[in-house]
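Contributing new records

If you add data, match the layout below exactly. Sequence lines come first and carry their own label; structure lines follow with theirs. Keep one chain per record. Anything else will be rejected by the validation script.
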Amino acid sequence: MIKLGLVGEGIAKSQSPDLHERLGASLGVSVRYDLVDSLGIADFDFPCAIQRLRDEGYRGTNVTFPFKEKAAKLADICGEGVRRVGTANTLLFDEQGLRAENTDYTGFISAYRHSFGRQSAGDVLLIGAGGVGRAVACALGELSASCIHILERDSQRADMLCRDLNAMGITAQCVSPEQAQRELPNWHGVVNCSPIGHINHPGCPINTAGLGAQHWVFDAVYIPAHTELLNAAYQAGAKTLSGVDLFVFQGVDAFRFFTKGRIACEQIDPHVIPLRTHYIEQLVSPRADSVP
């Protein structure tokens, strides 16, 4: 049996256990996937939680909000995605040490191309400059984004991401809520990488009055799948990309790392699109009054 986990805040409704256990079963491998939820735990000690999983024989763990930056700093070995992005969402317990990977980065590229093909990302409003925001911003650079306009309430975090992206050759600038609202009709993409819209952080991250059919819109939140932002985009006629897509593609990439040396990539590949179809049918297709 492969023992895996997820460490994060407010993750009780995460579908990650189902994804990894379902994928393992499809490949004839027994997987146990446990949740370590910091919600409501005063002074939650992230390094101790990771060490405890290692001591208990886990192969590795996924990491989500708000620990992705801490995960990267904790690692002994960082994969290419982590070195590029600066955050980690996957930790592997290797003999050589704690290895960090970032599958949000690779997963977003795969999700975008699956839905939009080779379409250029264009000018993009990025909401949120935290762990997933950094990963998606770097991925947007690979997807020919003309400029990434960063909207983040923590100005220091926004400035740091902006500086890092420009240093990589990815054009970026910080914007205010007023600038974003004014310029939104002229931009091409809207990407929400903030927790706003999640079941634990309800609401919409921006004023959506400027959304139109010229836009593509992605929301990293997938619980619920029909966020206020995606509902507004749907009503405006914009193309949409659900957080469910990122959830599936990054999850599969993490599974590849967890099972490296045990399951060949070519064995996993045929299961990716059927897995995506399953979660789209389960979480996205039933609109159930989500759009008036």
